[in-house]
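Sat 14:20. Reprocessing the chain from the morning session after the first attempt stalled halfway. Input below, unchanged.
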Amino acid sequence: MLYKNYMRYRKSLSFHSLSFYFLLSTFYLLTCEVRAQNWPQWRGPDGLGVSDLRDLPVEWSGETNIRWKTELPGRGHSSPIIWGNRIFLTSAIEGEVVEGAKPVGHIRSGRPFVHPDSVAGNRRHTLKVLCIDRDSGKILWDEVAFDGTVHDDRHRKNTFASSTPVTDGKHLYVFFEAEGLYCYDFDGRLIWKTSAGKIAKMGLGHGVSPVLYEDLIYLQCDQEDGGKDVSFISALDKKTGKEVWRALRDHRKTWATPLIVKHKDRVELIASGAETVISYDPLTGKELWRCDGVKGHAIPSTVTGFGMVFVSAGYPSKRALGIKLGGSGDLTGTPNVVWSFDKGTAYVPSPILYGDYLYLVSDKGILTCINARTGEIVYEGGRVPVPATFTASPVAYGGKILLTSEDGDTFVIKAGPQHEVLRTNSLGEPVYASPAISDGRIFIRGDKHLFSIGK
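Finished this time. Tokens:
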């Protein structure tokens, strides 16, 4: 837009005006370059999984376009984040059974409850923060944030390092839920640590990532099966870790990362939940609006565009909603809830908004393409060429959407109103974490290695 304005008015503008447009254009281009270089949080610069880069590889394998791969200690489903030439991620190393240790107990419908897939709460765990050189793949530092027994179990498929860190370019903020929130500088020096409390999720484990806005860090801590004074969302001072505000929430356990959205003259903090979707003033915690929620486990993260937010859940109910921003009060049943759709949603993978379309991805990789503004179905049943299960959320760039399966196969999908699989690329290693994109490369965390993919 700046360039078009410059061309339109260049004959009539004064020298000083031209200089101003040149400086403004330069600033705009430098800002785009910084955004393309950095992937500072869960799902990238805006938390939406979309990169401005275009010249990225569409083909890779064990030998082709793999710049490097680095073996990682332990396990983790946190996605890599990138700032400059540094990559940050977390990992959990499981140790021996600790005599007498046991996880917190859970109550459902007034009776003790143990999830059949809950494991590892009776073991010692070492939770680590890693910094990796983006150019070489060398591990620059490896710090232990927590070492000991944990508060709660995890699902056997989950890890205790499933929350993606966030950075402001100076410090790194790492959330291990009940095991603490930690702030490091880029050299691995611990600046502060604090506790958000004994967060428990019915023995299913971690997943919500921290979010930054201005000088505040946001943590959505919905837990157990809800109830009075159990769940909350809070804001902490990023310089000290001190809590600035806390809003109580009568919500059951949630794994959806909240989203900061700028709309017209205000900023909203959107928190998805089974019971309700709530918008907060991010500086005060005051509730701006709410509406009926996704009626299932709020695991997929919120996305935004066209003055709306889009939320979804895939179990036990399947539901996606398109909601207008800028409202107030209870929006349930009002025109602010523009559309709803009751199939095609995923249990874990988040949707992605790219161009005019919102793409829902089921856990089996079946795509539904929706006109984001209206909720009109563009296509349903878009399939990948082989049977697969998906935990990673999609990312997009250059007119393409990447879907990475638990088998480590990445399917390159052509974005647009017709479903087309352009390529299938295999790493030969299971993948549960979502990819990151930075400075001409794609970074995919496998079960054992971090892969740098570039031409």
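The longest helix spans residues 15-37.
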